[in-house]
Amino acid sequence: AKKKGKDQYAFFEPSMRESFQRHLEMEADLRRAVLRHEFELRFQPIVRLATNEISGLEALVRWQHPERGMIPPLDFIPLAEETGMIVPIGEWVLREACRQAARWNRQRDPDKPLTVSVNLSAVQLDRPDLPDVVDRALADSGLPAHRLVIELTESLLVDHRQETLERLNTIKALGVRLAIDDFGTGYSSLAYLRRFPVDIIKIDKSFVDDVGDVPAAAALTLGIIQLGQALQLSTVAEGIEDAGQLSELADGNCELGQGYYFAEPLTTEAMQDLLFPIDPH
Ligand code: C2E
Ligand code: CA
Ligand code: CA
Ligand code: CA
């Protein structure tokens, strides 16, 4: 037993050191990535369920690492938040998303402008200059404020401070709309819906997953949609993957939907082709 214990010790110690080393390496890589602009955006369509038209796009960040390839956001955002690097990364995402959306809207039918949705981290919301950063991104891109949606997660609103609420009100006063992301996964949803100036609720994929095969899940999801309607909020169903889910949600009068069933997050070029198909003739 003693020997086994020793082996275990010998086994775990280098692996902890390795993971610490990896963490440091990743942090250095991330610093370099910010300086060298190694980030890219993907755009996923948000579809109006009644008409099947694209009403907006969600901008989702990717890290194109020179050796490790494409790194998804959940693998680097936590470290970026911990180190504060989410601030320059998030500002780039915001500016780039606004710039691209304004560009597409200039090419589009002026009666059908797109909105663009950008995810914001709590670290960004802690900064007093956030309203100025948003205002400048809008001014520099020419995107009207009401075409920008800022997505916030429930946990961010639950742990808020008074300044957070004031900052959100300042951003709202610009005309920007606010969405609650992953709605239903937190624990005090109803209380903060009254307190925060929210315009849109995005129903978490975990609810949408079971719509179509679990009757109780469908009832819950339809209840959230009705709650949204009663509060005059837009509702977006996230993670729609099949026609069965889509038809239940559309029947339940969910306004908007997003998911692989329509399209996965696309590169700028692929989104360009989707928005402006080239006539083959
Ligand atoms: P999210 O904001 O909830 O974004 C939706 C995620 O679900 C995206 O993952 C998207 O690719 C994925 N998704 C969309 N439709 C489907 C579907 O039908 N099925 C499945 N299985 N997945 C679907 P992604 O791009 O990996 O982003 C993950 C999370 O990373 C985001 O979740 C968001 O919380 C965060 N994130 C992404 N971009 C940014 C950013 O620029 N800033 C910050 N702070 N966070 C970001
Ligand atoms: Ca989101
Ligand atoms: Ca979400
Ligand atoms: Ca299912």
Automatic annotation (TrEMBL):
Location of the EAL domain: 23-279
Protein name as annotated: Diguanylate cyclase (GGDEF)-like protein
Originating organism: Actinoplanes italicus
Top-rank taxon, per record: Bacteria
Span of the entire protein shown here: 474 to 754 of 754
